[in-house]
Amino acid sequence: MEYHIKDLSLAQEGRDRIEWAERDMPVLRIIREEFAKERPLKNVRISACLHITTETANLAITLKEGGAEVYLTASNPLSTQDDVAAALVKYYQIPVFAIKGEDTQTYYQHLHEVIRKEPNIVIDDGADLISTLHKDYKELSKKVMGGMEETTTGVIRLKAMAKQGILNFPIIAVNDAYTKHMFDNRYGTGQSTIDAIMRATNRLIAGSNFVVAGYGWCGKGVAQRARGMGATVIITEVDPIKALEARMDGFLVMPMIEAAKIGDFFVTVTGNTSVIREEHMKVMKDGAIISNAGHFNVEIDVQALESMSVSKREIRKFVEEYKLADGRRIYLIAQGRLVNLASAEGHPASVMDMSFANQALSAKYILEHHQELKRDVYRVPEEIDRRIAQLKLESMGVKIDTLTLEQVKYLSSWELGT
């Protein structure tokens, strides 16, 4: 079996952590049991570009139980958990091409490795796999049945491809499922981002000015958790509706140039480029800590920070100190890459349970419906979304009401009024 990982001897620790995560993924466990009986993905090749974490491992195992040949590579050079990669190779015979800290060249070599397996279905997190497939393997891309995309950033890229008419197969935007973005993005990103900042810095968040750039679902989650830790939270936005919502939710709202002057912690979570720029870093306080929770490492202009600095050193693991000419110091976490996976472990398993249940069921859906789907980006079918929500409620011991026949009739009529 071909693979490229850091160290196979880490496998036992990885297997233990995969099993620990699996205990908190009851929805995916139910789907895995169904897949093992029905084998809906028999002889289907799936290439996936995802964060190689314990939760991703459980998705890969589920897909394999369903009959698929699964090939994994990392969707971020710093997000791989090397022990998990080793366990997948040694104990589950799933080929993995990922090493934490790999350089850009190796990252793309690994993408090419899983593409050359000629997948029938692709799973992506950020759209690097799909875009590389279209740019470098155009004819092969035309043979792909379909794919799934996990992130807001990736969905934006793929919708642009569809709009330009260059997308060669249908995409299910798993990110847009309610059971994904309302929970994974808000509760998962919120908790794991704060966790990552605390692990990296060991600084007290209570009493600080905590700046969150972007008030989408991820931004909302980070802002809520920072406020829960006792911070004064400041939101920066370009969308007037989201900015208004942030203000009505009780947060301070101001332009980044103003927030930069008073912020202690900064987190970018917009999916856009150059959100924190030279003009902002010029006015930051001595000791400002900046990080990124967006998928790509473009939200902080690290190149500008480099050019402004007279010296640079790693003062803690995953924390680089940049000293400016006037003596101020700015601290960058995880090189400006996805902080919650670079300096922590990513989202809790109970949240990823729903996200990866969507991935597994969407893979089955694509296999069954790809011939009738156009080369476009689709939401997860509502019946899949609702089933996952219902299974999650049942796993939590929560029961809900059902409509009576009278209520069903009322909702479907127009004659009844006051």
TrEMBL record:
One of its GO terms (molecular function) is adenosylhomocysteinase activity. It is found in: Cytoplasm. InterPro entries: Adenosylhomocyst_ase-like_sf, Adenosylhomocysteinase-like, Ado_hCys_hydrolase_NAD-bd, NAD(P)-bd_dom_sf, S-Ado-L-homoCys_hydrolase_CS. Transmembrane segments: none annotated. It comes from the Bacteria. Its cofactor is NAD(+). Pathway: Amino-acid biosynthesis; L-homocysteine biosynthesis; L-homocysteine from S-adenosyl-L-homocysteine: step 1/1. GO terms for cellular component: cytosol. May play a key role in the regulation of the intracellular concentration of adenosylhomocysteine. Its main location: cytoplasm. It comes from Hydrogenobacter hydrogenophilus. Gene3D superfamilies: Adenosylhomocysteinase-like, NAD(P)-binding Rossmann-like Domain. Substrate binds at T53, D125, E150, K180, D184. Belongs to the adenosylhomocysteinase family. NAD(+) binds at residues 151-153, 185, 214-221, 237, 272, 293-295, 340, 347. Binds 1 NAD(+) per subunit. This is Adenosylhomocysteinase. One of its GO terms (biological process) is S-adenosylmethionine cycle. It is an enzyme of class 3 (hydrolase). It catalyses: S-adenosyl-L-homocysteine + H2O = L-homocysteine + adenosine. It holds the Pfam family AdoHcyase. Residues 185-346 form the S-adenosyl-L-homocysteine hydrolase NAD binding domain. Its EC number is 3.13.2.1. Keywords: Cytoplasm, Hydrolase, NAD, One-carbon metabolism.
